[in-house]
TrEMBL record:
InterPro entries tied to this protein: ABC_transp_permease, ABC_UrtB_bac, ARM-type_fold, BCAA_transport_permease
Signal peptide start and end residues: 1-32
MF-aspect GO terms: transmembrane transporter activity
GO biological process per UniProt: amino acid transport
Listed name of the protein: Urea ABC transporter permease subunit UrtB
Gene Ontology cellular component terms for the protein in this record: plasma membrane
Native source organism of the sequence: Ancylobacter mangrovi
Encoding gene (name): urtB
Residue spans crossing the bilayer: 248-275, 309-327, 339-357, 390-414, 435-454, 474-498, 505-523
Length: 540
């Protein structure tokens, strides 16, 4: 038999459970009622009501709000023509109730909720506000950035609430910046708070901060305007310095490309004295080798795509090196000591190679994809560094170091240097100069092929790819010193940086002309370049 005390305990437990269930149901109804007014505004068919509805959804706290805003962004939010008008989310499976996401009976004809640029900005602001409480730090960081761009005052309460709970240092900094940007543009803010917000934004020191400070209301107090003007001047000075650093980085990137294109020409021109106008086509053949390798990988083993460039590098070296040896053995060796005929012959070879590529692959550009490890970028202050350019610079330095090691530490390198300094004496010492010439031409062509692998990531792969680099390559070789690898390195980096520093002031074309004039004047003073080779036969 059950005691009266036990019965009372069971009754209390049941009562508490009923109260809790009722509370949850009421909360659910309250949540639905909280955004029902916003949903009704979507049915009015005017932009003002839609913008107001988005503002209400952003601060409603309803779990359905994010889905409704996303549906509007995707053009999937519709409302019925029949009265009473209701809002639905359109999917492939039919119409869904926006609160329950359950299918609904066919309401008849429906119309999409219209959007324009003003509504798109409101959608971005609402999405940012709703994402501020996401469990993912990256999502919260993106949301803070969206609030910063829109500077929507309606997002301030949600932003301050999220800021009070935020623990991630980077996200908290972004939220503080977004809050300060909103405070700067609000009316009725005390001057002290607005000046503090100006200092927070000014410390960011980027273009976004500059745009925020320039949006200061016209009715701001003089001391507030003075603080903003001071921060604007500081940001402009900082950005000007970062622009110089960015241009230097672009110059080093261009210099690494010139180094890759010219380093093979440096040893060919230095050892053999041959003006090889087909050198650019060796670069082009290396790029097309990369294209063929990637097509084969896509066809037979797509999982190897990230390794496609690593596979293409030795293949491009071997293929273009073999082509170089064939050209030297069949054409160049009969024209030594006849520079004009050599120039014309190699120019003719370049045209033949271009037409052969057009016949095989067509005249249009070919797509060469970037592996995942070369995609994306990262920032250092206001300096943006892409992984693709960074890897090309590293690759250029590795090729330079490897070639330097070959010339210094191997027998063929020793023989190449001997032939460069005094061909007749090297021949009298038993060095097979004809064989050295063939190997040198093959080595230079192979390095040009590897340069083509790198250039395929930053330039159009077409039959004309090499033509854009042949003249610059000769400039690098002559400026740095014929046959001197260190001179080629310094010449390539110097010309690359100088070119990019001149472009903002003179433009790309006038900057190039100014650089050519400077090089001509320099060669008048030092005909052998920066690092001239030494030796009695050279001095003679």
């Amino acid at each position: 038999m059950t005691s009266p005390a036990r019965c009372r305990s069971l009754s209390c437990a049941l009562l508490f459970a009923a109260l809790a269930l009722a509370t949850l149901l009421c909360a659910g109804r309250a949540s639905a009622q909280d955004i029902s007014g916003a949903l009704d505004q979507f049915t009015q068919g005017n932009y003002g009501a839609t913008e107001a509805a988005l503002g209400e959804l952003a601060v409603s706290g309803s779990p359905a709000a994010a889905g409704i805003v996303q549906a509007l962004a995707d053009g999937k939010l519709v409302f019925s023509n029949a009265l009473p008008r209701k809002v639905f989310i359109e999917t492939d499976k039919g119409l869904l109730d926006p609160l329950t996401m359950q299918p609904v009976p066919d309401p008849g004809p429906v119309k999409p909720v219209r959007v324009n640029n003003r509504i798109r900005r409101a959608i971005e602001a609402a999405s940012g506000t709703l994402s501020l409480t996401s469990p993912d730090a990256a999502t919260r960081l993106s949301a803070a950035g969206a609030v910063l761009r829109t500077r929507d005052e309606a997002a301030l309460p949600a932003l301050e609430k999220a800021l009070a709970k935020e623990t991630d240092r980077h996200v908290k900094s972004a939220m503080t910046l977004a809050r300060s940007a909103i405070v700067i543009g609000m009316d009725g803010v005390p001057p002290e708070e607005r000046i503090k917000a100006i200092e927070v934004v000014g410390a960011e020191g980027n273009q976004d901060a500059l745009a925020v400070l320039r949006g200061l209301p016209d009715n701001a107090l003089p001391e507030v305007k003075e603080a903003a003007a001071k921060e604007i001047a500081g940001i402009q000075h900082s950005l000007a310095m970062w622009d110089v650093v960015q241009n230097v980085w672009y110059g080093l990137s261009l210099g690494s490309v010139l180094l890759l294109a010219a380093i093979g020409l440096a040893i060919t021109f230095g050892v053999m004295g041959v003006i090889n106008m087909a050198h650019g086509e060796m670069v082009m053949l290396g790029a097309y080798t990369t294209f063929v390798v990637q097509q084969a990988i896509r066809t037979y083993d797509p999982g190897l795509f990230d390794a496609s460039l690593i596979i293409a590098i030795p293949l491009a070296f071997l293929f273009t090196g073999l082509i170089g040896v064939i050209i030297e053995r069949t054409v160049i060796r009969f024209l030594y000591g006849r520079p004009l005929e050599t120039l014309l012959a190699t120019w003719g070879i370049s045209l033949i190679l271009q037409q052969a590529i057009r016949t095989i692959f067509g005249p249009t550009n070919r797509e060469v994809g970037a592996p995942s490890w070369m995609s994306g970028s990262f920032d250092i202050g206001q300096l943006s560094i892409t992984y693709g350019r960074l890897w090309i610079i590293i690759f250029a330095m590795l090729v330079f170091a490897a070639l330097l090691a070959v010339l210094r530490l191997t027998r063929i390198g020793l023989e190449m240097r001997a032939v460069t300094q005094n061909r007749r004496m090297a021949a009298s010492m038993g060095i097979r100069t004809n064989w050295v010439d063939a190997m040198t031409f093959g080595l230079g062509s192979g390095i040009a092929g590897m340069a083509g692998v790198a250039l395929s990531q930053i330039d159009n792969v077409s039959p004309n790819l090499g033509q854009g680099y042949i003249i610059d390559s000769f400039l690098v070789v002559v400026f740095g010193g014929v046959g001197n690898l260190w001179g080629t390195l310094v010449g390539a980096m110097s010309l690359g940086v100088a070119n990019k520093l001149l472009e903002p002031y003179a433009g790309a074309v006038l900057g190039k002309i100014a650089l050519l004039v400077i090089i001509i004047l320099f060669i008048q003073k030092r005909p052998r370049g920066l690092f001239a080779l030494k030796g009695r036969s050279i001095e003679a």
